[in-house]
Each structure stands twice: as structure tokens, then as C-alpha cells.
Amino acid sequence: MGLCVDIEKNLPSFKLKAKFDDSSGVLGFLGASGSGKSMTLRCIAGLDTPTKGKIILNGKVLFDSANRINLPPQQRNIGFLFQNYALFPNMKITENLEIGLKNMSKTQKHILSESYIERLDLKGLENRYPWQLSGGQQQRVALARALITSPDILLLDEPFSALDHHLRSNMEKELLHALTEFKSNVIFVTHNIEEAFRVCDDIIVYDKGTTYAKRDKKSLFEFPESLSEAKLTGCKNISVAKKVNDFTIYAEDWGYEIPVRYRVCDDIKHIGIRSHHLELVESSPFPFTIENIIENPFDYTVYVKNYTKIKSESINLTLSKDKMLFSKGDKVNLHFSIDKLFYF
């Protein structure tokens, strides 16, 4: 049981190819805007039709191009939280919640809507219209409407994108609490790296319509297996790489041969390390010169470069403010932790 997707859809700028299975928990779609994440959700929900392929949810075929099956949205039992919430502006909050409830008496609908109003902290807002609510309140109404029908899957399309930072943090906590009581599949679309890590259990990276294999979030961030995975999970330090021997890689952009823990494949293309995994040490085989220092609210980003190589690219590392004892032009030595390097 669970969700099985294997579809293609021809789009103006690329061909979307989405193939994955998911049985439980919160699955994240992480990728840049316009990479096909939201379109995949729309195809699952029946709001757009794939060019070909198959979508199966809990053993029920929602779409099968070969057998000409394409269930309408109302027969798919899917909860969808849109980016713009898509609330009906001429309906009060209670009416927005109850409109999707079928085969119930008026009393049953009212009891159920009241329970979701209570759960999502909407008490006292029942008779207001969407335009009378704040952004956070509108989102809670939209989430309640998506959950109230007991859907087989919940699709969340960048639900925090329209909220400011403070409200986004509060709503994220509320969403996580609501999802603890939802036992079916959840797909969470975002291009925010930290958000994806906090909310999701597993993550699929999207890059220009191509989906990479589903990964456990911790292994994905710790050891990305492709250039797209590394970049889209926020790694800034990536160099073109060449194999020197089974346990040494030459990082062309950094100008150094770097020892690694695991055997290097012959067709290696890149090596990378995250900024917070780099260390400054008293001595090492990797001397650099500080190229620039950028102050952030709580730390510094330090850019260093190997000036002994003409084509060297800068590397950045993160330093806490209490450790910032350097100036632009200073010579420093880097330590590349053998356990934190990744290469592919």
C-alpha cells in the first residue's frame, strides 16, 4: 500500500519524469522553482493529466495511460493545500470546511467542522470570511479543509511561501503537530533547504523535471550522490575532481590532492564539503589565503583561495563570531575532515 508514481509530462521547457514509491511518513520534493514539483502534485491530484504513465494510491489506480484510466479529482480522495490556499472568498470559514463533506447530515458536518476548528486554533473565527483573516489564519483554514475529509494522501504545495519568517516558524510547528495525527501519506513541496530537513522524513530532489532517487534526509544532506543533490541541499564548496589513485582525489578548483576514506571510482566528476565541516588549523598540507570576510547576524562566512594556482576557485567556511581572529589577506590552513568529504 502507499503511493506509486511513474509518469511523464511534456512541458514547454522540459519533460517531467517522476518515478518513485512511498509508503508512509512525510515525503519532501526539494528543488528550484519551475523544476516540476508542483506539477507532479497536480498530476497526482488529477488537476493536470500526465502525457503517459501510471499513478496508484493504496492499490487504487488513479491514472493509467495504457488502460485509459484517469479518475477525476473528486474520486481520488486527496487533500491538497495550495500555495494561495484557494479558499472560497464568498463563504464563511465553517462553510469552507464543510463544502467537501459528502453523505453526511448537516449536524454531522457541523460536529466535524467544529472539531477541526478546535484542533487548528480557529475558535471564534467560524463566521468570518477568508478576507477577514490573517495569512496564518487562512493557512490553518486551508489545512483544516484539506484534512477534514480524511484523505488517503495530503499534498502540501509550499504552504509557508506566502508567510513572513516569524509566522512561518509558528505555522511550521502547528503543521508538524497536525501531521502527527495524520497517519496517511504526506507530500511536502519546498525549495527551502532547512524547511525540507525539519518537516520531511525522506526527500526526492527535482532538477529540471528529473527526479533523483528517494533518500533518507540525513543521508541526503550528509552524503549527496550527484551534483544536483549537492547544490540543491546547499553545498557551496564543490570542485571538479580527478582520480589520482584509489584513495586520493585531485580537486581542480582548489588546487590540491585530497586523501579520502572510500575507494574512488574511475569516472569521478566532483568532490565537495559543506562550509560548516571545514576547520582552520595551525598547520596542514592545505594552505589558503583569506579572500573575503562576510559578517552574518550570528557568524561569519570566510572565503579562502589557493593563490598558488592560477585557476583556483574560492572555498567558503563558517566561523562563529568568537573565533573570528582573522583579516582579509591572512594566510590560513584548512583541514578537510575525511569523514565529511563526498564525491561522485
Describe this structure in words.
Keywords: ATP-binding, Hydrolase, Nucleotide-binding, Transport. Its EC number is 3.6.3.30. Strands 3, 7, 8, 9, 10, 11 and 12 form a 7-stranded mixed beta sheet that branches. The protein has a 5-stranded antiparallel beta sheet with strand order 2-1-4-5-6, with helices on one face. Helices cover 22% and strands 33% of the residues. The mean pLDDT is 94. A hairpin with a 4-residue loop joins strand 14 and strand 15. By secondary structure, the protein is α+β, with helices and mostly antiparallel strands. It has 2 domains: 224 residues, P-loop containing nucleotide triphosphate hydrolases (Rossmann fold, 3-Layer(aba) Sandwich), CATH 3.40.50; 109 residues, Beta Barrel (OB fold (Dihydrolipoamide Acetyltransferase, E2P)), CATH 2.40.50.
* Radius of gyration, whole Å: 24 Å
Overall structural domain count: 2
Uncertain ranges: none
- Measure the end-to-end span: 33 Å
Net shape: elongated
Query: Tell me about the biggest sheet?
Result: 7 strands, mixed
Assembly of the depicted chains: single chain
- CATH-level-4 superfamily name of the largest domain: P-loop containing nucleotide triphosphate hydrolases
Q: What is the residue-mean pLDDT, rounded to a whole number? A: 94
Element string (H = helix, E = strand)? EEEHEEEEHHHEHEHEEEHHEEEEEEEEEE
Q: Residue share in helices?
A: 10-25%
**What fraction strand?**
25-35%
Structural class: alpha+beta
Regarding CATH, which class of the largest domain? Alpha Beta
Give the count of helical stretches.
8
Number of β-strand runs: 22
- The CATH architecture term of the largest domain is 3-Layer(aba) Sandwich
Instruction: Return the CATH topology of the largest domain.
Output: Rossmann fold
